[in-house]
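Q: Protein A?
A:
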Amino acid sequence: MKEFLSYVRPYKKDCVLAIFCIMAETVFELVIPLVMASIVDVGVANGDTRYIVMRGLQMCAFALMALVLGQGASVFAARCGQGLGAELRKAEFAKLQQFSFANTDHFSTASLVTRMTGDVTAIQNAIATGLRPGFRSPVMMTTAIIASFLINARLALVFLVAAPVLGTLLFLIISHVRPLYTLMQGAIDKVNRIIQENLTAIRVVKSCVRGDYEIEKFTQVNDNLRRTSERAFRLSALNMPAMQFVMYSTILAILWFGGRFPSVGGVQVGELTGFLSYVLQVLNSLMMVSNVFMTITRAMASWRRIEEVMHEEIDITEEQARDIQVTEGDIRFDHVYFKYDTRAEEYVLSDISFHIKAGQTVGIIGQTGSAKSTLVQLIPRLYEATEGTVYIDGHPVAEYPLRGLRDSIAMVLQKNTLFTGTVKDNLRWGKEDATDEEIARVCRIACVDEFIDRLENGLDTMLGQGGVNVSGGQKQRLCIARALLKNPKVLILDDSTSAVDTATEAKIREGMAECLPGTTKIIIAQRITSVLHADQILVLDDGRLNAVGTHESLLAENPIYQDVYYSQQEGANL
């Protein structure tokens, strides 16, 4: 609760004002039945028209004040609820930016999206719509019960039976509904995951004619969500019948006993009328409380899911960081082991040791699944080595501040990503204040200038989400240009020229050698021609370093390298 309230604190003023308006509105509404009772028992009984008019005007004034205060309560409660939602989204998104790849792997993308949207919306709606009845109903119920006892204590004893009955029914309903709300949010995760996968891979779905299969998959998760939701709402719907059962039973009991009292002169007609008004207010308060409990139950299920994200332990921290920065780009792996899950039996990388001198160009070759990408992701600490140490310029990478470390390393990942915006905006991810001359320079090196003029507005062309309006090769060249714009100490290309022809690849390689002579370059590739001229080549085999050497030495001595080389030579000859 303390953590939850910390997000409400910036909107404390709105929350306090909302509660004040709610309390004041409730008081004015509760006074109205007393005035109405006096009109009947005094004004009507004595035929005093002036008294009736004055009391009637008083009732109108109280009603008007209640209306204004109710409006104020709604406005302030909405501000508080929406503000809380904004704070939760901001905090959750900031937390996600701290996640390492390992942290992100603990959640599906669809689930994280749902937790930031649907779950936050459930909480902010609980505040915006539940604050008023949540504070109004206890005050109204307490005051109405006290007033009822003041009017007629014997009749008011009915509440001592009605309240416990309703409370027991609500407890039974909520205890069964609460776990279903958690299941329902999980079912929403699955629906979002299927939708996301389908839209992301829509070209694959259509080219493989798997539309029917995708529809069947979606139907299954959608039906699961429907069934779970139906169970949850079917149980929560019992709230209203339970409320009405207690309410009508109470009214019948009061009319039965109250109707007998006048026969002995115990209760006046005005008293019974006022008493029934308070009874309805008490029962209405109980109904509001029950609805609030239902809303809070769903919000609590959502809050627990958000807490899972907020309490996720960040496995890559800056506890050992010192005020140092990468100056040369010298890289050394010292008996490095790695596995994605510490509980896993097998290591993904085992006993990796090698040394890359500053300014060298190094190639990494290996079969698919040999953990080439995982290896280079340990350098900027996207993953943390399980055992052993990765050094840059003689310092363990853990001693570098994360921002400085990653800013000195430019990495073009295997899966290229462009963002919605102009081409120029995407390139400036590499350097925010890059000049047009700098952008033109890296575009020339990455061979972006070969196609940029064919785009509708050149560098100002808007790219769709993920760069859908450029080809795979164009996307790769844009990502390389973005990395070059950083002028990094270490440049890592993770199979980033796979969609580029060999002639263009050679131009890019020559351009990088000229413009980044002192930069350490690590090139992961499937094609031997991509690493042919590297100073040294690492051969990975099933997560182990099989050999290190030049193209000539490996071709003469290493069977794995020979197999790759000759198989590609045969493919080229065919």
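Q: Protein B?
A:
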Amino acid sequence: MTKAFFNLMTFLLFLAPFLSAQPSLYTPRDFRQAVENGTRTFTGQPGPNYWQNRADYRIDAMVTPTERRIDGRAAITYTNNSPDTLLQLNLKLIQNVHLLQARRASYVDPAFYTKGISLSNVQVNGRIVDWDNGAVHQSEDPTNAWLLLPEPLLPGASLELTLEWNFELQTSKLEHREGMVDESALFAAYWYPRIGVYDDISGWDRIIHNVQTEFYGDFNDYDVTIRTPKGFVVWATGELTNGKEVLSPLALERFRQSQTVDTVVHIITQEMLAAGQGVKPAEELAWRFTAQNVTDFAFGASDHFLWDATSIAVDSTGRRASVQAAYQPESSDFYEVAEIARACIGYFSTQKPGIPYPYPTMTIFNGYGQMEYPMMVNDLDMESMDDTKALTAHEIAHTYFPFLTGVNESAYAWMDEGWATLLEFFACTELYTLKNPEESIYPGYYLRRYLGVKGAEVDVPLLTPTDQLLAPAYQLNSYGKPAAAYLSLYNLLLEYNFLECVQEYVERWRGKHPQPYDFFFTISECSGEELDWFWQRWFMEFNTMDLALVDFRQAEEALFVTVRNEGGLPLPIPLEVELEDGSSRYFRFNPVLWKDGDEIELEVPVEGKVRGIYLKWEDFRDVDSSDDRLEKE
């Protein structure tokens, strides 16, 4: 027996348990190929050969608000951990979505347009590489640019990419994700050339950024210096490492205090701004931030924003996370955001999902967006405190999906937006009592269009790649419908088992790139349930939420109710029984009852004569309510 043959047999024996659990549901060829290659498994575990590439970014950037301009230079160390030889790099140039000729899925106003991002002095391992900004801007997709390498990047090898760039910040106020907030405040996101993800499923991530789609990033380390004019403060992903060099003594003292207390500390107030006591008086300030193992880096800057901060212990060791809010003095709701964010982080860390907040900071910035970034949120003022609480909870919930578990939200937005929607629902029903939840959170807010549109577009399977969808399918498949799927799973597995399995999923794929089937198989294995039927109906078929009451009859001390699943989706059955004495009884039946058929007879233990029965929908929606009630003839 040769050594090579022995090694092959050893590997196959190791892999055998993962290969043997063949799923009964549809599994695409790329995932099956990954299983054969040993990078994924049919049990939901990362395979023995799992790999992912990464980069270290060292960035120095100058912000010039008066010119709405950012100039930057970067040194990027990129490591190829794949088994493949790479001949080129995919550069994500998201700022090019602002080009007039770029492809977009939604309307933008004229203030959104810019001249895009321009690169210069591009070098690989010290060698100048040809780069043509004009050719990139006029290409079919300027948000994905290709850099040919002077030498192939071999498996296990690294390269040093250095480059410079500049771009103009857009000025649209239509709730876009980045740009100028006012004349001297801005939020910078997707602001630097980032090397795209090269993974074991698709190779290079080639999905076009079209304003609607979101993002997919490797886990990288960042060391970033942001240079600003006099009087500006910067808030960013990661930790501020040179506070003593940029903050005034009073602001620094308050900042340090905020990191040890549970109450909100006003680090920079209007009075401090008026007296010039917020930052050091230098003509240029260099703000340095570091962040480890994160998928992106964003920052906000202003010379007139207020700054609140507090902190919270997030795990049993007492580790504290800094919680900050930076906002316009005239904001109607941000005065309460630091405390709202603190409460949400505490809830998510200890209740649902019950996973300690994993990062050292979280900052909510008052811009024009409703968008999440690692340790940063860009939120606009909301019309009610209900909306403020819901939006803050939603964006912080993204900490777990897609930042702790690095899902490809460009292709499968339901793997992060659906979770954020569900966690927002949990927080705003268990942590807060909203005045009008129907207008602010799931299901009402997220499923309003689901009832109003009756075509096939609202029943498109969730597994359909998100980047191939437009409204209303995009919004429903990203937010409301997956939240309903996860909540149905919660009802099926019950709370303890559900949370245990979600925690196991996050632990397995923490700092990695899970695919839909990694989620499916992990939950199935962890729960000990055969759930292929559930995944099939919720994620792979044209189905809808529609249950119907068919008949009911009483016999002795029991009520027998026949229910039909007209829509096909496995939902819990929320049954209200009205008795002739005017009282009522509520019963909720597990969606597992739909595993083997679409019509069932329920035996309901009630005493007294029944006047009528109805389906009492609260956390789900039924597209046809005409058959949700039956009364005694």
